[in-house]
Specification:
Distance between the termini: 61 Å
Largest sheet: 7 strands, mixed
Strand content: 15-25%
Length: 666
């Protein structure tokens, strides 16, 4: 499904745009003054090793990228992403590229952001270019020109690829998922702790690409009943739906709703690789406790077309979650329907019908090829598993089996009946008052058709995270929602704080939990963040743990000191890094991997936690710190925003370990 375009020949170079995520529009050679005979002889001896100055440049090209939806009625002003290939006719010479029609990204490139390159054959892995680029803005301030030097490879038959940042295309995703599936499914299932892995197509995009959804869990509490085929979804009839799981909440993670935000794909890959690890005790515990529903690419058309932010109709898909259209926004329609389905613990809405479920002689069956049919069908074993795996928050679910059988639809008759989110422990307060099904924004009135809300303890969802990239704000951080109630606020802040303990590059002080950040109007498209995944999921389900995770394209402003894991011993702390690294796919993947232990730390189910060796000593200590931070924030002078946990770096040090211990003891 890649873009097709004829190569562009310019100045003896051949430029390519005929691959997935490429977006080259036009190339023009910049003519240099004719050198004298003496200068020409001197130039022949110049190489990349001896000089990198402007004087060593022998070729210069102006490059125009495609706008999002280029050449269509939906063309818009997004022009940050670029990705193209070329072949040089001369080896080891300096070439200057001017990307002349980009969006203004002064902040990012002033902080040292560099494009990336790879060479096939030769330099197979993406790497940042070695020369720091320069940039300029035209007099009108509208067009931003990025210029950088590149030394052509020795092999004139090799193709060099240049991109805004590390690419991860739709084709890359499909190849990657096939490799993961082959690795996971080739091993024989021997016990209930083995990886349950299921991949399927939830819906097709506007241009017919797959919206993949991956289910990962263990075989604990698996049923013999498959999930329903929701109406107008799951078009691949040969693909079975995954099995349902009882007494296991769903963690929903998605990525790439904005096509150019490729860091989100690498974070996703790191999380996925962590979950399918068969030996890691933390991954084993996660699979025992939860069912993971993962969507790796929400905007496959935009990715394949080389867009930066929009889909093929010029729509920012992260603004339509409240009421998506199956005709105009099919991938978001599917994601929203799945979130609703798992929120109601596999319950179909009344207007939907089961189009296809696995039945044989009127009974649900399980595929015998899985190799554990006897384990799953053994009632005694299943009951034993349920008792063994009982967690603290399941004490509130004594009637859950009845809920699974009956699926009653609750109706809120008063403010006391309104949902209060998806957490436990600290979540005893009420949610913000404006929590009705009909929601207003500055642009449109959205009616969340078919969406209701359950009390927090009855929701089938435990956590929602949507993964993104970020151009201006440094570091890795999360956006959470705003709550009037202090306990709900602290519950929302807990996962981001734990992420800062489990990952050196996560910036808790950059996280944002303000009301303004839920409803701010985007200057680029005039749409409110109320329609984003994070806010809409909270509005539609009451889930407190609903987040956007953001990763800067370039680097951060601080590095956390990592305490040792329990099984590593106190003396095996990770050596501190004082200078934030340039972010690479490996750094992003480590962020995704850190999400796993952070989720386990939320309920003290991490068998190899860092918390005991941290300054907080325990989950209770972290909660106490957040309570103190919350109270400290409330005491700020009048006029400063409350609940905005954008602390300064030094602010954490103001709350000492003694303060935390005193709060715990009290």
């Amino acid at each position: 499904m890649a873009n097709t375009a004829d190569p562009i020949i310019c100045g003896g170079f051949v430029f390519y745009n005929n691959f997935d995520s490429a977006n080259l529009a036009r190339v023009e050679q910049v003519q240099a003054p004719e050198p004298s005979e003496k200068d020409a002889n001197e130039t022949e001896n110049k190489s990349c090793k001896s000089s990198t100055s402007e004087d060593s440049v022998e070729y210069e090209f102006n490059i125009w990228t495609k706008h999002d939806c280029h050449g269509t009625q939906f063309q818009n002003g997004n022009r940050t992403w670029f990705y193209f290939g070329f072949k040089a006719n001369v080896p080891r010479i300096y070439v200057k590229f001017n990307i002349i029609n980009l969006n203004k990204q002064l902040k990012m490139f002033s902080q040292g952001m560099c494009p990336v390159f790879k060479v096939i054959p030769g330099h197979l892995h993406w790497e940042r270019i070695r020369e720091r680029p320069t940039y300029s803005v035209d007099q009108k301030g509208s067009d931003f020109t990025l210029s950088f030097l590149y030394c052509t490879p020795e092999n004139t038959k090799a193709t060099t690829y240049l991109a805004f940042t590390y690419p991860f295309s739709y084709t890359d995703l499909q190849n990657y998922l096939r490799r993961v599936e082959a690795r996971v499914t080739k091993r024989t299932i021997t016990c209930t702790d083995d990886v349950y892995y299921h991949r399927e197509c939830a819906i097709k995009s506007l241009e017919g690409r797959r919206l993949d959804i991956i289910t990962i869990s263990s075989f604990h509490n698996i049923s013999t009943e498959r999930e329903d085929r929701l109406i107008d979804m799951f078009p691949e009839k040969h693909e079975d739906r995954p099995f349902k799981f009882w007494n296991k909440k769903v963690i929903f993670v998605s990525a790439r709703v904005h096509p150019g935000e490729t860091p989100s794909s690498f974070v996703f890959n790191g999380f996925l690789n962590f979950l399918v690890n068969r030996e890691d005790p933390m991954a084993i515990n996660l699979r025992r406790l939860y069912v993971f529903k993962l969507i790796p690419m929400l905007n496959p058309d935009g990715v394949a077309r080389g867009h930066y932010r929009m889909d093929t109709r010029g729509v920012n898909l992260n603004r339509v979650y409240l009421n998506p259209s199956i005709k105009e926004h099919p991938t978001i329609y599917a994601a929203r329907n799945l979130i609703r389905y798992y929120h109601y613990t596999y319950q179909l809405p009344k207007e939907d019908e089961i189009s296809s479920v696995s039945f044989e002689n009127g009974e649900n069956i399980i595929d015998s090829s899985c190799g554990i049919t006897s384990i799953v069908r053994d009632t005694t074993t299943r009951l034993l598993q349920q008792v063994t795996l009982m967690t603290l928050d399941e004490k509130h679910h004594k009637d859950q089996l009845e809920i699974f059988q009956e699926f009653p639809l609750p109706r809120a008759h008063s403010m006391d009946d309104m949902p209060q989110g998806g957490g436990e422990g600290l979540c005893n307060g009420t949610e913000e008052s404006d929590n009705s099904v009909e929601l207003k924004s500055d642009k449109t009135i959205y009616s969340a058709v078919g969406i209701g809300q359950l009390p927090k303890e009855d929701s089938g969802l435990y956590l929602y995270v949507d993964l993104h990239g970020h151009a201006s704000k440094k570091g890795v951080f999360m956006y959470g929602n705003y709550f009037e109630n202090a306990d709900d606020t602290i519950t929302c802040m807990l996962l981001p704080k734990l992420m800062s303990i489990n990952n050196p590059n996560f910036h808790f002080t950059s996280c944002n939990f303000t009301e303004r950040n839920m409803y701010i109007i985007d200057k680029r498209d005039g749409m409110s963040r109320e329609g984003s995944g994070r806010v809409a999921v909270y509005k539609l389900t009451g889930l407190i743990r609903s987040y956007t995770l953001e990763c800067n394209y370039n680097s951060g402003r601080l590095v956390n000191t990592m305490p040792a894991r329990v099984r590593d011993g106190v003396n095996k702390t990770v050596p501190p890094i004082f200078v934030p690294p340039k972010y690479t796919p490996a750094v992003y993947e480590a962020v995704g991997a850190a999400l796993g232990p952070s989720i386990l730390d939320l309920t003290s189910n991490n068998p190899n936690s860092r918390l005991p060796n941290s300054q907080y000593r325990s989950l209770r200590g972290v909660k106490s710190y957040l309570k103190l931070a919350y109270v400290n924030n409330l005491s700020t002078p009048f006029g400063k925003p409350l609940h905005k946990v954008n602390f300064d770096v030094d602010n954490e040090s103001e709350i000492s370990a003694v303060d935390i211990r005193q709060c715990v003891l009290s």
